[in-house]
């Protein structure tokens, strides 16, 4: 999946903005730990597979 990396960031703001652009608008509430966001995605004909890693503890609240 590393070859299909879409986003890599150690910044909370850049992580949220980048993921919102790729997935859905959302709010992240960060807990303790270092930010090490990595998002990879492979799109196939009818499906896609994604791997998302935040590094730090995080609560995701998608927008309606």
Helix content: 10-25%
Looking across the biggest beta sheet, what order are the strands in? Answer: 1-3-4
Count of strand segments:
5
Average pLDDT works out at: 92
- What is the string of helix and strand elements? EHEEEE
Runs with pLDDT <50, length 5+?
none
Into which percentage range does the β-strand content fall?
A: 35-45%
Q: Give the radius of gyration.
A: 12 Å
Q: How many domains would you count in the coordinates? A: 1
| DSSP helical segment count | 1
Shape by Cα distribution: globular
Main sheet characteristics: 3 strands, antiparallel
Distance between the termini: 29 Å
User: What is the SS-derived class?
Assistant: alpha+beta
Notable characteristics:
64 residues, two-stranded antiparallel sheet, alpha+beta, 5 strands
Fold and architecture overview:
With 64 residues, the chain is an alpha+beta fold. The chain has one domain (2-62). Helices cover 17% and strands 44% of the residues. The protein is built from one helix and five strands. It has one helix at residues 12-22; strands spanning 5-9, 26-30, 37-43, 48-53, 58-62. It has a three-stranded antiparallel β-sheet with strand order 1-3-4. The mean pLDDT is 92.
């Amino acid at each position: 999946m590393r070859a299909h990396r879409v986003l890599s960031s150690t910044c909370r703001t850049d992580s949220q903005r980048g993921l919102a652009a790729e997935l859905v608008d959302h709010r992240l509430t960060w807990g303790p730990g270092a930010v090490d966001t990595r998002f990879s995605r492979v799109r196939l004909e009818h499906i896609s597979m994604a791997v998302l890693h935040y590094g730090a503890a995080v609560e995701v609240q998608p927008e309606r």
